[in-house]
Amino acid sequence: MDVPADERTDPTGAQPVPLTEPADGVPPVVADSSALRRAADALAGAEGPVAVDTERASGYRYSQRAYLVQLRREGAGTVLVDPIALGGRLDPLVEALEGTEWVLHAASQDLPCLAELGLTPSALFDTELAGRLAGFERVALGTLVELLLGYRLEKGHGAADWSRRPLPADWLNYAALDVELLVQLRDVLEEELRQQGKLEWALEEFDAARTAPLPKPRAEPWRRTSGIHRIRSTRQLAAVRSLWETRDALARERDLAPGRVLPDSALVDAATRNPADEAALLALPVFRGRAQRRMAGTWMGALRKAAALPRAELPETAQHHDGPPPANRWADKDPAAAARLAAARTALAEVAEANTLPVENLLLPDLVRRTCWQPPSDTSLDGVTAALREGGAREWQIGLTARALSEALAATPG
Q: Does the N-terminal peptide bond of residue 413 adopt cis geometry, omega within 30 degrees of 0?
């Protein structure tokens, strides 16, 4: 019986070795143009793939910019770059990395902020995605490093405020460790994928991740306010929207995470209680603080704006979706579509299990839902193949799923 990849253990029973600091120590942070040129020259003259990571300040800052960029390449060692001190101008680094393969873990999280700095890879290896395709159920960087390389990484500062200056020494140590073993991990995962016959699949996925367009802004992002499910009337929804938009403008202006300007719970509380004036607003729990007392007029202005809206301008209770409704409503709205989806999910789960793949990596769930809600007029193998290709599926995904999906759709017409 095959042992699942994530359950493999070292037959010697050896314990992972704690890795508490980089082998070559923590380098000084590159924070001026001359140091950047020296670092870029070192990286350009080195060999092999380049390990890349970034640190952001999510939860502290409005922007998703990189506050530190970490790189490591054989022959150059580790480089820590402060893009803030450099004014976001990393041209020497852009030139040095041209034509190199980048190794990132969960690349989709880092590529947008790197692109803001003019840094885009010519080739990519994503160790998290590689781990998923290789069948590992747990694909955090520390987990894979421990399982495959035998080291336990020092962790603990990923959620820190990386906009802070100067950066503490232990934070820089943590940041350097994130790229210390990334290339070695890449090599082990590449061999694992090759042995499983999945390397070509992975290369398609890496290229798709590398060339993916930047995410589009969400329609009506205010509807993601935590606790909004407690809101029942459209007038209250308008109040949440008005408060959210006011907060968002302030957060953007101050470059603060919106929740640090005013928490979601306060938006929902104010919309639900509908205070008559500033005094009533300031009686609500979150608004009693000194910072919110200074902003009381701003928040009341947002509430009054929502209260004055004509009925025609109130938001609808439910958000319009570009696509099928939530799957849990299909049985009532379209029983035939619900049957198609159930058959498709069963068939795809079998394919995923046979190939030791997460079903969500086998085929995007949204593409499966769209195909089952409004199937192609031609549900033959050729018709489904064309529909999947038009929907953005990669060739390896089509090769594994088109026949199973075609049979599922043909067996449950509607």
A: no
Q: What are phi and psi of 387, to 5 degrees?
A: -65, -40
Whether the per-residue pLDDT at 63 is higher than 60: the answer is yes
Residue 305 three-state SS: helix
Please list the alpha-helical segments (H only) found in 255-358. 258-261, 264-273, 278-282, 290-294, 296-307, 330-333, 335-354
Q: How far apart are CA 29 and CA 50, in angstroms?
A: 18
The DSSP-derived string for 213-274 is PPPPPPSSGGGG-TTGGG--SHHHHHHHHHHHHHHHHHHHHHT--HHHHS-HHHHHHHHHH-
**Contact (Cβ atoms closer than 8 angstroms) between residue 186 and residue 103:** yes
Q: 151 φ, ψ to 5°?
A: -120, 145
pTM: 0.91
Residues in Cβ contact with 325 at an 8 Å cutoff, skipping those fewer than 6 apart: 333
Contacts of 1 (CB under 8 A, 6+ apart): none
166: preceding bond cis by omega (within 30 degrees): yes
- Name the DSSP class of 379: -
Q: Where residue 9 falls among pLDDT bands split at 50, 70, 90?
A: very low
Arithmetic mean of pLDDT, 11-15: 62
Residues in the chain, overall count:
414
C-alpha–C-alpha distance, residues 367 and 261, integer Å: 37
- The topology (CATH level 3) of 221-313 is DNA polymerase; domain 1 (1.10.150)
3-state secondary structure of 401: helix
Q: Where are the domains of the chain?
A: 5-211, 221-313, 327-411
**Helix axis angle, 381-390 relative to 395-411, nearest 10°?**
130
Phi and psi at residue 287, to the nearest 5°: -75, -5
Do the domains at 5-211 and 327-411 have one common CATH topology? no
Topology of the domain comprising 327-411: DNA polymerase; domain 1 (1.10.150)
Provide CATH code, domain 5-211.
3.30.420.10
pLDDT confidence of 269, banded at 50, 70, 90?
A: very high
Taken in order 189, 192, 194, 199, the sign of the CA dihedral is negative
d(CA 144, CA 158): 17
Q: Residue 343: pLDDT band by 50, 70, 90 thresholds?
A: very high
